[in-house]
Write a structure and sequence with these properties.
globular, 3-stranded parallel sheet, 40% helix, alpha/beta
């Protein structure tokens, strides 16, 4: 969708949020208590996205995947 000054209403109304693994997006979704699937950009150097996603998934805050496994993870 087009630019929105805030995603809060969209997140709160969602049954599932699919996002990149940026800390801000993750925190905003977790605050709204919505299920979250993050898609990690595996091509980044010093990939903090993988570290963050793994750590939060370990404690069942979210699920994560890479683009190649997105459809399987979505199921």
């Amino acid at each position: 969708f087009d630019f929105a000054p805030s995603l809060d209403a969209h997140i709160k109304g969602a049954k599932l949020v699919v996002s990149h693994a940026g800390a801000g997006s993750i925190l905003e979704t977790l605050r709204a208590r919505r299920p979250l699937l993050v898609v990690v950009n595996e091509r980044l150097q010093e990939n903090h996205q993988v570290e963050l996603a793994r750590g939060l998934a370990k404690d069942d805050y979210l699920a994560w995947c890479v683009p190649a496994t997105f459809l399987v993870s979505l199921q």
